[in-house]
Amino acid sequence: MIKTAETYHVSVLLKESVDGLAIRPDGVYVDVTFGGGGHSREILSRLGAHGHLYGFDQDADAEQNIRGVADECKGCDERFTFVRSNFRYLKNWMRYYGVDGLDGLLADLGVSSHHFDDESRGFSFRFDAPLDMRMNKRAGITAADVVNNYTEEQLSDVFYLYGELKNARKLANLLVKARQESPIQTTGQLLELTEKLFAREREKKEMTKLFQALRIEVNHEMDALREMLLGACSLLKPGGRLSVITYHSLEDRIVKNVMRTGNVEGKVEQDFFGKTKSPLHLINNRVIVPSDEELAANPRSRSAKLRIAEKIEN
Q1: 79 contact partners, CB below 8 Å, separation of at least 6
Q2: Which residues of 66-104 are buried (b: 16+ CB within 10 A; e: fewer)?
Q3: Does residue 56 sit in helix, strand or coil?
Q4: Residue 6 confidence (pLDDT) above 70
Q5: What Cα–Cα distance (Å) separates residue 92 from each residue in 98, 99, 100, 102, 264?
Q6: pLDDT tens-place string over residues 71-84
Q7: Which three-class secondary structure state does DSSP give residue 173?
Q8: pTM, full prediction
């Protein structure tokens, strides 16, 4: 069952992330992670009649929340455009809509509560479900395809790079042997096969990392993030803001590098006077984290970090 916008996902760092955009009433903004529409609703509430917001989401379920957002904001139909696409194609879509500059972009990179709570999607080991994990159910490989078709070396790399699992090689070897007997098709099968490799006191945390690694690989999340951030850097107008919420070290490292140096690798380039060359200027040198009140209301926000940067005048 598809949830309402109110229960689909509780927006994390809502006020802080939208405040970070320093919204101009007549500006053009993008929410590249529409989801339940919480951040989009807040942005629209601060836009005037001539402002516009583009909301991206590749998941068909998210489209069910558009009406709820529009009903709360008068004139939203004229001021809001939904783009059913992966945010990696940000530049292409902005070109399609004739947008050559943005006043701000917001990204909440966390997986929505809806995905974790939907038993049919395979994002959580709380349920026995098909090993799917696709954000876009219309295309792409599934987690079952990865587990059953990747070589042992490929699986090991996925678990180590995207899950930071120290026993990545053992996990890969175990799965390759197990699938020779029969295909691994469900989260329950994966859980039963791998839990023996995790110490009981760390079992839940390690299993979370395993599922994270598969989800990132299935959805090409790191590649998409890199493309979106570099696209945002080129699209932002001078003074335009980039407001990004991260949840794990892999994506946070990429966001931090781009904001500080203008490139994914974090390679510092300096001008003749020794000043760092970057298209962006950090607004908050320290990450913004959820308040105690927000953590109490929404425990899933505990790993969230907000970084904000501004486009520098050329």
Answers
A1: 44, 47, 49, 51, 52, 53, 73
A2: beebbeebeebeebbebbeebbbbbbebbeeeebeebbb
A3: strand
A4: no
A5: 10, 10, 11, 14, 20
A6: 666 556 689 999 99
A7: helix
A8: 0.89
